[in-house]
Specification:
Strand content: 15-25%
Helix content: 25-40%
Structural class: alpha/beta
CATH superfamily: Isochorismatase-like
Number of domains: 1
Radius of gyration: 15 Å
Largest sheet: 6 strands, parallel
Number of helices: 5
CATH class: Alpha Beta
Distance between the termini: 16 Å
Strand order of the largest sheet: 3-2-1-4-5-6
């Protein structure tokens, strides 16, 4: 019997790539390329594909409900059959359908924006729910390299079972 797997893509939203946004993370074209390779590979292998978006209720600025900036980055290889989870707090598990959508899934592969916030929260909460977790480092984005490195190092130091790899390594091994 094959293990059920899911790819969770955390908050790949237009807000992060909007040059006029206070939340602009810079040019992430290489991250988008890597993430599309990851999506395509996982899709071929029968993974559940789950996207999350962060929305701030009552906001009329960044992350405003219904705004173009909370939509998934259009360059990503998203399909209508992919699951979309809208979240209103940092954790994709908090008061969402994520846990229900992961019923029967044992391994999750994680990529997303911001590494030190919503991605980290997902990984921590998934760890506490006994998922096997692989984080794809070059498909994650923080506001700077120091924060990115610290987050990966801290998660690894405190949760040794979590695997961390880059896209190319994941594609070779999985």
């Amino acid at each position: 019997m094959t293990m059920k797997k899911a790819l969770i893509l955390v908050d790949f939203e237009n807000e992060w790539i909007d040059k006029h946004s206070d939340y602009f993370v810079g040019n992430i074209s290489s991250v988008i390329r890597n993430t599309n390779r990851l999506i395509d590979s996982c899709r071929r292998k029968g993974y559940k594909i789950i996207f999350t978006t962060h929305v701030e209720k009552g906001s009329d600025g960044a992350f405003a409900p219904g705004s173009k900036n909370v939509k998934i980055i259009p360059q990503l290889h998203r399909k209508p059959a992919d699951i979309l989870i809208t979240k209103y707090k940092i954790s994709p598990f908090y008061k969402t359908q994520l846990e229900k959508r992961l019923k029967g899934v044992k391994r999750i592969v994680v990529a997303g924006i911001l590494t030190n916030l919503c991605v980290r929260s997902l990984v921590q909460d998934a760890y506490d729910r006994d998922f096997d977790i692989i984080v794809i480092k070059d498909c994650c984005v923080a506001l700077d390299k120091k924060t990115q490195d610290f987050t990966f190092n801290d998660l690894k130091a405190t949760r040794e079972e979590i695997e961390f790899m880059n896209t190319a390594e994941f594609l070779r091994k999985r």
